[in-house]
Structure formats: structure tokens, C-alpha cells
Design a protein that fits this description.
6 helices, Ribosomal Protein L22, Chain A, 282 residues, disordered C terminus, single chain, five-stranded antiparallel β-sheet, disordered N terminus, alpha+beta
Amino acid sequence: MSHLCIDTGLTHAVRDRGGLLQYAPGGNPAIDVRWLVGLARESPGIAADRPPDFLSCLEQQAVARLRFAKRRREWLLGRWTAKQLYLRSREGGQPLPMHAITIANDPDGAPYLLTDGEGRIPLSLSISHCRDRAFCALASSFGYAVGADVEHVEPRDPAFVQDFFAADEGALVSDCPAPWRDTVVTVLWSAKEAVLKAARCGLRVDTRRVEISHLTGLDPSRAPGASYGDDMPETWGQVQVSTSWPAKARVAAWWAAGGGYAYTLAVTIPFSCDSLNSSPVL
């Protein structure tokens, strides 16, 4: 396990396609953000005809309603990865079979954890999928909410930047070194998604209302893949972000890249901590 100090208040540890970011925003309790990347080839049963045995009864009912194979595989891989992440977070706790964990959704779509005998777990959970992988994050409570997103780095039409990015973000793309352009566009888009997930808005909000002014950790002297490893995210840079809608929280965000993918994490930092209570929705 390696420990890296990325920016003020942030410590990061990496282990086995997962890691722990420990962030201490001024005036608020420290927050632990755990993350994990799950690969389809290493997740048992997600391509099988029958529901895998790591699903709870409620989840087996939910997956039976998914008609399309691609959506079914993504859904299963996300559940598998999120449960593995939760079990890692229980270091020293009592053993818990995966089928005793249920991942349900609030009415706004945000996922959360239930376990047999304990009910809803007071952690914030976010799940993202892209191609053959899932990216999940868990945040300690105290009113924090986490958003995670993974995107494949690929060329995007200039109209994409014009339609979904603010003017200053377009300038950020134009000014970056050419080898980094596709990565920067992907990171900016991914960070917007992560922030909107943490704010529990999703893409219902105009993405230009989440504006990114700077990415730390870009190294123009190296190609993106060479800077950040061949596969999994290792080094996280900070995303300086602001939002233009009324909110009861500030936002902190980070990014990493590796293996042709961009990964982003965001957390809302409450001015006052409000508890969330609602019924499970699958």
C-alpha cells in the first residue's frame, strides 16, 4: 500500500484496484472516501442466465425486470463491485455474505446499502459503469454525499464542448497540450457527472452550472498514460469546481486517469449536516 499527499488536507492510499482518500476540509469532520474498480472478467456470474448467488432476494427480483443484456451486465457488475467495496470497508467486522447485502435506490436514483439485521447503513454510495468496468465509492457519513464517475477517454466532437461546457472550460480545453486534449475533455465531463451525483441532481441539471476552473496534476511533459499508470488510477489530482445553483453544501472533487479511462470523485461538504431517511427503491 502506498500513501501519497496530493493536496492540502488529502491523503491517498492505493491497494488492489481500490483505494482510500482521507480528506479533512477546514471546519468539518474528516471524511474517508473509499473507491474500487471492478472488472467484468473478474466478477463471477454476471454473464450467466440465472441470477448470481451474490444477490439478495430483493436484488434477484430487480434483475429479473432488466430486459437488455448490456444493462443487466452493467447492473450486476456495479452491485458486485459495490458489495466488495463495502466488505473491504468492514475491516475487523463480523463476516458478512454478499447475499446479505442489498443495494437499493432512493426515489431520486441514488444508491444506498442495506444489510440483513442492520437495515440501512449510514454511508454514502455511488456507482458508475463504463464498458468492462464499474467504479464505486463509499463515503463516511456526517452528512457528506459522494459521487463517482468513470469514462472512456476518446475523441469528442468540438460541438460536445460547445454544448455542455461553460466558456471558460472551453478555453481550458483549447489551451491544454494536444496530447492531453481528449483526456482533459473526458475528465471535465466526468467531473461534472460526479458532482451532480454527489448533489443528487444527476443530468437533470444543465452541466454548465457545474464549472471547472482548474485541474491539478497535469504534466504536459508526459503523455497521459505514462503519467498515471497503465491500468488503475494511482495518483489523484484536485478538480477546482464551482456550482451556480443554490446549495447547502460546498463541493470538493478529484480526478485520476489510467488504462484509457478517466475517474472522478466528488463530495458535498455540508454547512450543516442533515440526515437522510427514505424507503428502499430497487
